[in-house]
Amino acid sequence: xxxxIKRYVLKAQVDKENDEVNEGELxxxxxxISSLRYELLxxxxxxxxxxxxxxxxxxxxxxKNTMRH
Length: 69
Description:
Blueprint: H1 2-68
């Protein structure tokens, strides 16, 4: 009976330690995802600005070319 109780207690302790590790890993993954999200939003914003500038430059160039003809 004592061995059975001891085995149960040891298993419960190991399970608890594993749960704590998993919680820590989950928090780290959540932080990584959040960081990646903000990086992607920043890159998207920069790309949109560059695209707008290119569109403006193309418009200016083609606007000048159509006036010459």
